[in-house]
């Protein structure tokens, strides 16, 4: 484990001592229950925000946080899509990220409890997230946000969904976005990059675990090269919203995230930050890994810069 940050090694040692069964040996229900029961000890106490709310868009549950200093009306907004391999996770498991970003940006953060596989496989999660984005843009007054200042973000599978929404927004099938925040995103369903071999096991998220997630998310007849599954394979990234990409060096997803960032550098606008000694999921582990906060602060700074550029362009 040469090169691992000491905090990441500490977390991996703790996980090894727990002797928890690998996720690929569990049913989706068992994996969801274990994840929702186990995330809290890894995180710091939740930050206070100006206001919290839960509401529904049809059957879809939303959690909403208004950050400290956010305007009561026409605040900048972030649609945040939680990670969890499209199978596990919920807005509550990523509430720490949402609250921190809301406070750092003085913004409103909305996180949907989108449908999960295998009960609702691809493209159900995309459809849900796109519906929330459309509602935010069409009814900004309901959220107290400026519909011209909406960004999208997410981690891991949520980063995949965020990248897909950014491409949809570019193509006019979703509302325009000011920025995208992609935290160690899934960008290629092939799962055959070199980082899948380097970090196949012993670094938290495993290659076998990712195969388990993919098997549940993708219908049997799904085309893995569909850009809605593998944004890295989109024919062009020109015109997408400016992006902040955060990568963990010891992560099976590192290579595909880095490849997506390189394409964004060539075809769009991007700020890329890599934490070489970190593992997948570190941004959700702020109670043990101090660099979690550092990554979110970097994301908020980039988001503010992109938002300012958007405001100047509108004048």
Can you give a write-up of this model?
It is a single chain. With 315 residues, the chain is of the alpha/beta class. Helix content is 39%, strand content 19%. The protein has an 8-stranded mixed beta sheet with strand order 1-2-4-3-5-6-7-8, sandwiched between helices. Helix 3 crosses helix 10. It starts with 5 loop residues before the first helix and ends with a helix. The mean pLDDT is 96.
Query: Radius of gyration, Cα only, in angstroms?
Result: 18 Å
End-to-end separation: 51 Å
Low-confidence stretches: none
Note the total helix count: 10
Fraction of helical residues: 25-40%
Strand arrangement within the widest β-sheet reads 1-2-4-3-5-6-7-8
Shape: globular
The percent range for strand residues is: 15-25%
* Largest sheet report: 8 strands, mixed
Number of strands: 8
Give the overall pLDDT as a whole number.
Answer: 96
Output the structural class: alpha/beta
H/E element sequence: HHEEEHEHHEHEHHEHEH
